[in-house]
Amino acid sequence: MKNIIFEIRYYLLFLILFIGIFLYLIFGSENPTNSVNESFDYREIERSSIDLEVFSVGGENKQTSNRTQIIYVEKNNTLIELLSESGLSNKYIRALIKAKGSEKLANLKIGDILEIEISEDQIPKNIFLTTDGLNGINANFNNGLFSIYKVSKKPDVLERFASVEIQDSLYQSAVEADIPDSVIMDLVYIFGWDIDFIFDIRPGDSFDLLYEEYYWKGNKIKNGDIKAARFKRGKKVYTAVRYFLENEQKEFFSIRGKNVEKAFLRSPVEFSYISSKYNLKRKHPILNKIKAHTGVDYAAPTGTPVRTTGDGTIAFRGNNGGYGKLIEVKHSEDYSTRYAHLSRYKKGLEVGDKVNQGEVIGYVGRTGRATGPHLHYEFRVNGMHTDPLTVKLPAAEPISDKEKDAFFKTAIEVMNKMDDYYLKLYAETD
Ligand SMILES: [Zn+2]
Predict the structure, then answer these.
(1) Which residues pair with 253 in a beta bridge?
(2) N or C: which end of the chain has fewer CB within 10 A?
(3) CA 293 to ligand 1 centroid distance, Å
(4) How far is CA 404 from the centre of its chain?
């Protein structure tokens, strides 16, 4: 008896499989059922109007009866647990776990995104595990079977243009123009080398911005990069154009090919306040006599990381009288910087080591002649002390001669594009 049931089961299974293949050949050619890499067409959609009609992009929102849940994976979550919480019944969960390749889907990491699409009558349609909304493992349910395969979706990249006049603060005005936070941060970073966004901004200053957004099936999945920007402060216009160098590194240059970044950071400590400025006639707090203060003091707790403000080579690392634990970085023939009163140096850091701008080289302390924990920072040009707060910082590497032509072509294209968008927004109509 048992054997007969067993055989009938197999018979049924073959029948289902046969019907399944049959149906697939007729209708299902667009649904991938094999373990193949699925790759979608890359389409950069040029907007023809200023209003973003994102929901016309994918055009595949026909099956409105399906419900997609988006779950962010947290600590100790398991696939089975999340699937049953989503309302998927045990029989489908079991079928998924048995399917070939399911172990890849079960490999959840904190922060992963699990998209579970279930039809109105509680039948699974699609399960997608991804870190970035684009790449991941997909389980498609079709004809009673799950097929699991790697997916690498190519999103639609849409351009957005914004032209904003600043009312009170840059941030507030940008938010009101619906510019996403990450793009505002990028804008501040790009122009922050030249413009102090707290003190230098006046009402009426304005900026134009061209940036990207990534969409998948009409839904925005992430913010993209700034492609170009120009910032008008009074009569002066600051420009920035995104450019990928031959080595694929992304850089921003002005339309004249100048790097928007400087060769030096303004400050070697991130969270601190200036407790003593550069002053050649200062009375020293410990020695109590006139002693020039040839640097800037940054008050910060002991242990706060100290960053080298520019690329260079460690020229000195050790105790040096009143400086206490001192590091000197030589940046070029002309420029060097000093970091004093450190509590300790970065482990393994030796004289002669190369360091990159922003790299941590030591930690704030109060060694040497110091009344409390702070960083004493000096900036020397041609061996002469210079005020680090007011020195005109040299720009980082400009566009190379070799890549100049290609860059200017990009720069002109993208600036013209911004003009077009601007005119579409503001040109008078009759
Ligand atoms: Zn000092």
Answers:
(1) 241, 259
(2) C
(3) 6
(4) 26
Along the 430 residues of the chain, how does pLDDT read in single tens digits?
445 444 555 555 555 556 555 555 555 443 333 322 222 222 333 332 233 333 323 334 444 578 889 999 999 999 999 999 998 999 999 999 999 999 999 999 999 999 999 998 889 999 999 988 889 999 999 988 999 999 998 889 999 999 999 988 888 999 999 999 999 999 999 998 888 887 788 889 999 999 999 998 788 888 999 999 999 998 999 999 999 999 999 999 999 999 999 999 988 998 767 778 888 777 776 666 777 888 999 999 999 999 999 999 999 999 999 999 999 999 999 999 999 999 999 999 999 999 999 999 999 999 999 989 999 999 999 989 999 988 888 999 999 999 999 999 999 999 999 999 999 988 887 7
Give residue 373 CA to ligand 1 midpoint distance, Å: 11
351 residue type, one letter? V
Instruction: Return residues with CB closer than 5 A to ligand 1 (ion).
Output: 295, 297, 376
Q: Which fold has domain 157-253?
A: Nuclear Transport Factor 2; Chain: A, (3.10.450)
Q: Is the pTM of this model over 0.70?
A: no
C-alpha 296 – ligand 1 centre gap (Å): 6
Domain topology for 273-386: Glucose Permease (Domain IIA) (2.70.70)
Phi, psi of 293 (to 5 degrees): -100, 105
Contact 209, 234 (CB under 8 A): no
Q: Kindly give the distance from the C-alpha atom of residue 326 to the centroid of ligand 1, in angstroms, as a whole number.
A: 12
**Domain spanning 34-49+64-154: CATH 3.30.365.10:** no
Structure tokens at 377: 């920072």
How many other β-carbons are positioned within 10 Å of the β-carbon of residue 182?
14
Tokens of 281: 């006639």
Question: Comparing C-alpha atoms, which of 366, 400, 64, 417 is closest to residue 217?
Answer: 64
With H, G, I as helix, E, B as strand and everything else as coil, classify residue 24. Answer: helix
Residue 323 CA, ligand 1 centroid: distance in Å: 9
In the chain, domain spans: 34-49+64-154, 157-253, 273-386
Asked if residue 217 lies in contact with residue 61, where contact means CB atoms within 8 angstroms, the answer is: yes
Residue 428 CB contacts under 8 Å (≥ 6 apart), including other chains: none
Task: Tell me the one-letter amino acid at 8.
Answer: I
